Amino acid sequence: MPDERSSDMNKSAAGKNALADRATKVRAPVAELIGFLVPEIASGRSVATLEAGPQHANPMGTLHGGVLCDLADAAMGVAFASTLAEGESFTTIELKINFFRPVWNAQLRAEGKVVRRGKMIGYVECDITDEKGRLIAKAASTCLVLHGEKAEGR
Fold first, then answer.
1. Whose CA is closest to 108, among 87, 131, 80?
2. What is the pLDDT of residue 119?
3. Which among 16, 97, 18 is positioned nearest to 64, based on CA atoms?
4. Is the pTM of this model over 0.85?
5. Phi, psi of 79 (to 5 degrees)
6. Alpha carbon 23 to chain centroid distance?
7. pLDDT tens digit string along 8-56?
8. Whole-angstrom Cα distance, residue 33 to residue 97?
9. DSSP assignments along 82-102, one per residue
């Protein structure tokens, strides 16, 4: 189901390629499972949001780091997808995240931004903040652009 809170930025990025278009129209199964939204998409940038709660907790009762990783990966992936040309796709070849503070219940915002987009390799960063603007985590991703047969079906 598409996110009803999509902005005009989503529409401008979506016209650029099929992956960004799909991101604005179809909510990925992982987004349904975890409960995040991607309400903003622009060229080389996106925002993913999550209302973190007890359903996302690790055995210690705080937000599981994998959930933060999924949120960051979504924001970075959609940001990078918005830079692709027709017939291109991509895959993540490296992902790193640093955790700065624990979370129990919070409205999280992950802002993904393409820092460098080359012909074959891209580098994307993401800051995850809470509703008070505090930095919760910082992530980075390296993406490999796929062309032709390698891009089919992705």
1. 131
2. 95
3. 97
4. no
5. -60, -45
6. 10
7. 334 444 445 555 565 556 678 999 999 999 999 999 999 999 999 999 9
8. 21
9. TTPPTT-EEEEEEEEEEE-S-
Distance of CA 33 to the CA centre of its chain: 15
User: What average pLDDT does the structure give for the chain?
Assistant: 87
Distances (CA, A) of 18 to 12, 82, 89, 126: 12, 9, 9, 23
pLDDT for residue 84 is more than 90:
yes
Q: Which domains does the chain have, with CATH numbers?
A: 8-151 (3.10.129.10)
Q: How far is CA 151 from CA 2, 16, 112, in A?
A: 24, 16, 22
The torsion angle over the Cα atoms of residues 24, 28, 32 and 34, rounded to 10 degrees, is -110
Q: What is the pLDDT of residue 120?
A: 96
Rounded Cα distance, 65 and 121, in Å: 26
For residue 145, give every residue at least 6 positions away whose Cβ sits within 8 Å of its Cβ, in sequence order, or none. Answer: 84, 88, 89, 90, 118, 119, 120, 121, 122
Residues across the chain: 154
Ramachandran angles phi, psi of 38, nearest 5°:
-125, 80
**CA quadruple 127, 37, 77, 15: dihedral sign:** negative
